[in-house]
Amino acid sequence: MRRIYFDNAATGFPKAPGVSDAVKDFLDHNCVNLSRTFSREEEAQEDYMLHLRETVAHIFHADGLVPVFSGGLTESLNTIIGGHYHRGDHVIVTPFEHNAVLRALTLYGIEFSVLESDGRGNTLFDGLSSLVTDRTKALIATAASNVTGIVTNLEAASKAAHENGLEFIIDTAQASPCRDIDFARLGASAIAFTAHKGFMGPEGVGGFIASDDFLASTRPIIAGGTGSLSDILEMPQGLPDRFEAGTMNLAGLWGFGKAVEYHLDNRDELAERTKKATRLLHGTLQDLEGIRIVGDVDLECHMPLFSITCTRGDVSRLCYGLSRLGIEARVGLHCAPLAHKALGTYPTGTLRLSAGVFTTLDDFEALRMGIKEVLNETIL
């Protein structure tokens, strides 16, 4: 059975050309541990990591800052949240935040208030000032909802945050690098990114970029060897060592580097493919009888990701029926419970379908025919 993949919001597939070869090449020929071995190979790896950091900083318009690499966006958000804020602090979040934000806030005892939405998937940032207290430190916003695919108005979010004297933190997972996120122009305090979604790199790799002022009062949440200043028991102050304890996933970072290279070499084409995938996915779903697209549909402010509900029965059964046809998707709350409460789809959730730059016309047609076939079956 042919694999028909519509779960790119969970992880990009297939990966960018050359990614798996880069991972294999590192493991077969270049395997070292940074700052632990003195060799020509290790020096070459240090140079490569420096180049990758500079390139990633440039993509996010954060030239001069040092990206910190991590085991993924969730780990990065935990460092940003748990390392910078304290129990009893208060932050404001959008209704569309992922549990990587919500559970981190809960774990570290940081109180939060939720902005209102218009019920169609758009956050109302003009109500932010009413939620600010003398303990409020930041606004945290996802760049695009992993439930609806709607792109957040980051300009409005930035304006609201700065007018109220708040730090501004962005979760870029669903938007980068397809959408331009300008760290400097938005006046961000910190952003978190991941390799395995829009970049189409390996899982288990991500990182964050933060301003010097933000990092000056941020504690590492993981401690260990860095290969530097090994005579002191505290984590070193210098970057990136302060936040990169232990052995890094260099094989994954090599794969990420290849994905970044592919993105930069094909940036305009990939942007067009992303827009086309958004139009094609919406066109596939909009006229199908028995389903409803959740949230606003402004294709200029949308990722190639849509959630649907089923008017003929249980949406989980629709997902199961599609899986029997080889069509992969995701059903449920998508680790974003507040989003579903804002959209009126809690607790059942939605069936999420997310295309990518490599999704073919045959895939879209198979999805259309598959939904029609399953909806006509008696299991619903």
> Spans with pLDDT under 50 lasting ≥5 residues?
none
Strand content: 5-15%
* Sequence of secondary-structure elements: EHHEHEHEEHEHEEHHHEEHEEHEH
> Which class of secondary structure composition applies to the elements?
alpha/beta
Please name the CATH architecture of the largest domain: 3-Layer(aba) Sandwich
Strand order of the largest sheet: 2-8-7-6-5-3-4
* Total E-strand runs: 13
Rg over alpha carbons = 21 Å
Helix percentage range: 25-40%
CATH superfamily of the largest domain: Type I PLP-dependent aspartate aminotransferase-like (Major domain)
What characterizes the major β-sheet?
Answer: 7 strands, mixed
The CATH first-level class of the largest domain comes to: Alpha Beta
**Average of the residue pLDDT scores:** 96
CATH T-level fold name of the largest domain: Aspartate Aminotransferase, domain 2
Description:
- There is one protein chain.
- Strands 2-8-7-6-5-3-4 form a seven-stranded mixed β-sheet, sandwiched between helices.
- The protein has 380 residues and is of the alpha/beta class.
- The chain has helices at residues 19-30, 40-59, 73-84, 99-107, 154-163, 183-186, 212-216, 250-265, 267-286, 315-324, 337-343, 361-375, and strands spanning 4-5, 68-70, 90-93, 111-114, 136-142, 167-171, 190-194, 206-210, 291-293, 305-310, 327-328, 330-332, 350-354.
- Helix 1 (19-30) packs antiparallel against helix 8 (250-265), helix 3 (73-84) packs parallel to helix 4 and helix 9 packs parallel to helix 12 (361-375).
- The chain starts with a strand and ends in a 5-residue tail after the last helix.
- The chain has two domains: 4-14 and 267-375, Alpha-Beta Complex (Aspartate Aminotransferase, domain 1); 19-265, Aspartate Aminotransferase, domain 2 (3-Layer(aba) Sandwich).
- The mean pLDDT is 96.
- 37% of the residues lie in helices and 14% in strands.
- Helix 5 (154-163) links the parallel strand 5 and strand 6 (167-171).
- The longest helix has 20 residues, at 40-59.
- It contains twelve helices and 13 strands.
